[in-house]
Amino acid sequence: MARIAFILLCHKDPEAIIAQAERLTAAGDYMSIHFDARANPEHFNQISEALRDNPNVTFARKRIKCGWGEWSLVQATLNAIEVALDAFPRATHFYLLSGDCMAIKSAQYSHAFLDDRDRDFIESFDFFESDWIKTGMKEGRLIYRHFFNERTQPKRYYWALNLQKRLGLERDIPHDLQVQIGSQWWCLRRRTVEWIMDFTRQRKDVMRFFRTTWIPDETFFQTLVRHMVPEEEIDPRTLTFLMFSDYGMPVTFYNDHYDLLVSQDFLFARKISPEARELKARLGALYATEGVEFKISNEGRSLYKFLTGRGRIGRRFGMRFWETESSLGRERELLIVVCKKWHVAKRLLEQIRKATNIPAIEYLFNEESTPLPDLGGIQKTVAKRHRHRRALMRMLFDYFATDRLIICLDPGALDLLQDFCGDRSTTRLLEIDVEFTDEFLTGHAMRIGLAGEQTPPETLERLLPTIRHDMAFESDRIRDANFANHHRIREAGRMEENAGEVAQFLAISEDKAQEIVDIDYLFAD
Fold this sequence. Notes:
The radius of gyration is 27 Å and the shape is globular. The protein has a five-stranded mixed sheet, sandwiched between helices. Strands 14-15-13-16-17 form a five-stranded parallel sheet, sandwiched between helices. It has a three-stranded mixed sheet with strand order 5-12-11. It has 525 residues and is of the alpha/beta class. It has helices spanning 14-26, 41-50, 72-87, 107-115, 140-143, 154-167, 190-202, 204-211, 220-228, 258-262, 277-287, 300-309, 321-324, 342-355, 382-387, 389-399, 414-421, 438-447, 457-480, 495-506, 510-517; strands at 4-10, 30-35, 57-59, 93-98, 102-103, 120-121, 125-126, 180-181, 187-189, 234-235, 240-241, 268-269, 333-338, 360-361, 404-409, 426-433, 486-490. It is built from 21 helices and 17 strands. The longest helix has 24 residues, at 457-480.
């Protein structure tokens, strides 16, 4: 049976640390604690005194002062691992936790989960090819040496960074390593951890490199695991559930999050509020319970992805240099229908096809399955279509032998709208303002993976206002952009008004436009 050695990094809340250690070790697991040397020494004394007689608890021999973004976080982890390997020879897995993490499954479930999967669980994505870093410095984390902390010594940090840039003091990445990036929180098998510790003793060059990288807790273990472990033995995910707010800050969980947490496909969650005493008590009791069946709604990863994208809006797929200087053609006209309810836009497009001879393509930048002609492979994936957006559109104009073309876009694709509206060609927008019932939002959440059949009603009740606000926010961004030739029809609008907007959008008579919009089921769900 799996036996877990928890590697706990903490710096406050001694009562919670003590309770966490006693709870996890009571189920037969182990814990190695690194308590930040910067923290209150009385708190460390309190923890060490309370856990002194627990044979399943040990402490890092050397405590160091930890700082966000620094190598010190990795070194603290290594110090705690070193003593855990010696103290707990029966440990089969090593699980990195913070002081505000808590189990959201029973010990029985967690042990069975690991027994059934002979894998290392760690997010590890290619540092340069993935879009894991949403904002800020990327390559500079590695090729420059970082001696100061950006948060506590910003002047020194940027002075040293800019000096290296001016003098061209870039360094090479160790030639045999493919740098990976991912969440700090992982669960690794004993063999993998032993390999890592051997590697740290043998490869001093790699250790020197990572000691002066920026935010190495997101790259060090992730890179070494990929370097040493066969790909088929790595599950690139974290077993710790966490979400981020629209400001990129970790979401804190409170008493009313219990149902949401236990239904996720994860073993632990972070961050649990220190004030969430009822939640802590319920989760603590759950860990010791046997025979519990968990209904996994599995929307956690989608919620994580959904929320991390809020407030970090930008181009996911960078344009090629030849795209930035190209144009669809000054004489061409691109007509864009923008609507969150894709089926409504598709119905309108079908009516337009019947009434005009303008070629119309549905959500080609949103749906992989959108029917497209063979354009030499550029059309094969949504990612390729984004990267070669202007080239794709020029080829479609040429394919249909037309100077007028209609496409559909989701309101979330603001970068595409800005790009096309900034082109030398004429671009017209028709935004369809639709209403969203709770039933539609629930169905939408399920279609895109934010919820599942087993999602508790309480979770949906909290989730729907967020989705509704997000949709309103997307529409507001489009209007705030002040695009020229922006027309709008409304579900609540009169048919004559909507027909007038469509007539201007398509440059057709109002009688023909009225034929297009005069269908009873246009806005039906």
